[in-house]
Amino acid sequence: MSTGPRPSGLLYDQIMSPRAVEVLESLGDIEWNDTGRSLTQKEVLERIPGCTAIFTTWGAPNFDEELLAAAPDLRIIGHAAGSIKSFIPPVVFERGIAVTHAAVTVADSVAEWTLTMMLMALRKVHIVDRAMQAGEAWPNYRALTPLELGHKRVGVIGASMVGRTLIKLLKPFDPDIMVYDPYLSDERAAGLGVRRVDLDELMSTADVITNHAPTTEETGGMVTSRHWSSVKDGALFVNTARAAAIDYDALLRELQTGRITAALDVFPLPEPLAEESPFRTLSNVILSPHAAGVTVESLLRMGETVADEFVRFFAGQPLRYGVTADMLRTMA
To answer: Dihedrals φ, ψ of 81, to 5°?
Structure first.
């Protein structure tokens, strides 16, 4: 294939730094997607013959049997985004095609956002901001009983990449961190400086609860109405992972009582959150549009991470962020 003109557009400009482009072009000829949109499955089928590496991001094609049959030379797929589960079926691994992704680059920004939401919600920043924006001259901040994060009991659901990164960010606040994760060993928990607990204890005793569980068959709906009814008065819940693990109807009922607060970046599918959703009416909830992982830096790191992985692969070196078929079961 010949190297065609480089594309332009918001997503390309956000992900592809000059260094990432230079690295990729150093590896061989590139056929860029110059349409300004995601390619259709048919368009990918027309372009993929002869390719040895595929660089994907949001809007990636489904690498099904038909697509793979058209790409007998394909050796590696690199995804410059988070989850790969929706478009990488088992047949990819059966064919011996290497898979890597840039989810690790998002973990820093999601963890930072999570910490930000904890601090904002506990200190009631959103409430005084809304009041002053609405024209209230000088809100009575002390009456809101703002709280510090320091020395709180924090419950982390899921020792995922984001969960582990968040734990590191929390350490200077000297909290009591407990983690629910069936796959977290005692040795690994000790290394993180956290306590392993069951979900019942976490939900009923934490001052701050943060969800970082992946969406799998095992985690679907695991935080039930019983768990929500056990949550302490005044507790804060933060969700920057996915909604599938959480009974959002039960969460809504508890939030409507006003006895707990929440910061929610994700919602039950289909997103976006419906305009008429009652979550939009609650003053004790901070809402954001599934944006926790989006920063200028994290997007550029995605492109550079995949480019660097391609360099390692074609140099015969181990991938740093390779994905195996066994990993899919517990991945987000």
So the answer is: -170, -155
